[in-house]
Amino acid sequence: MHVPLPSAGSPWPELESRMRSMASGDVKWRDGRTGLYVFNAGEDVERVKKAAYALFSEENGLGPAAFPSLARMEREVVGHALTLLHAPEGADGLMTSGGTDSIVMAVKAARDFARAGGMSGQGNLVTPLTAHPAFHKAAMMMDLEIRRVPTKNLLADAEAMEAVCDANTIMLVGSAPCFPFGLIDPFEELSAVALRKNLWLHVDACVGGFLAPFVEMNGAVLPAWDFRVAGVRSISSDLHKYGYCSKGASTLLFRDAAMKQHMLFDAGPWPMGRMLTPTLAGTRPGGAIAAAWAVLNYLGIEGYRAKQALVVQAREAIEAGVRKLGFRVLGVPQLGIVSFTHDSFDCMAILRGLYARGWITAANVDPPSLHLMLSPKHAEVADAYLADLAASMEDAGDATPMPAPGYGR
Fold this sequence. Notes:
Blueprint: H1 12-22, H2 43-55, H3 68-84, E1 92-96, H4 99-116, E2 124-128, H5 133-142, E3 145-149, H6 158-163, E4 169-175, H7 187-197, E5 201-204, H8 212-217, E6 232-238, E7 250-254, H9 257-260, E8 265-270, E9 273-277, H10 286-324, E10 328-329, E11 337-341, H11 347-356, E12 362-365, E13 368-373, H12 378-396
Helix pairs in contact: 2-10, 3-10, 4-5, 10-12, 11-12
């Protein structure tokens, strides 16, 4: 559709009205009606991050000499993340624009690290089937081979992954948790493989990095997954998910600052000399950096513990509710994601019923199952969701469930 730019501008009140009208058909995420895309920590957090973003909306993180405030805020945000994830002395990291950015840059660092160590030929990544497609994107961009290994009980199968490693394997991957099922991979086992074969082990904690530490502080016993696991070399952890910061903001953390050097770009020469950037992007929105700094300092450890307790409360309530409706929860989720399937109902038909009732949630195709990524707000609306889930089951009837494609059990 070709839409010509108007010859004359419009006043802001008119534009605001038109924008609100366009948004009238969007999901009512402030009411807790979405189980993905938005992480709703409440109106107070929304106000803080919007105000902080606006305050630095024109500043550019590309120029730390011009904007030392942003450089300082980024250092402090990264420092908070390193501390939460038990990084050793000498660790380092930086902010990126999101989980995919962090993952791509981690792969780039591992590739260049392997090349510096003498690797020649095409490198490869070894991941469980549940690893995020961002690793596949990175492989496509860098002409790497990706070896996706079937899971064992929905978790990374370290033995099977080791079996496909070779001299050109640049990275082993695990998730904390994986997005499809919300399960933390067995990193002690993956670490043993990585140490035995001298491989780079990356933890995709884009979902759990700012959730799991506080769930653990609240008393949960979680599988080891962060820098306390000896073989872990890098971790991606999103701020705009369970850090409740503005999009797009993530962190990429390295066990050793020397590893971080392999992700940096030194491009040129051109008429202005060299262009040094920490990520592929040039411009780095100051608003995202400022909003992350503001939200982390607004909530603090006590605030995050309270918010994440609500996430766990919501998940436990929904787990109990779906089991009463005859669903089977897949695996043993401990964080904010839960997936569940039914042996007598078509989950996709139920999903359509939920959508008709105003819920925007996800689903898995293998096995066919419903998927929720929960926020603190969902503790208030769990009963409403379960009631609409039951009604959607009635609409779907006793349908024959969709057959599973049959891979990656």
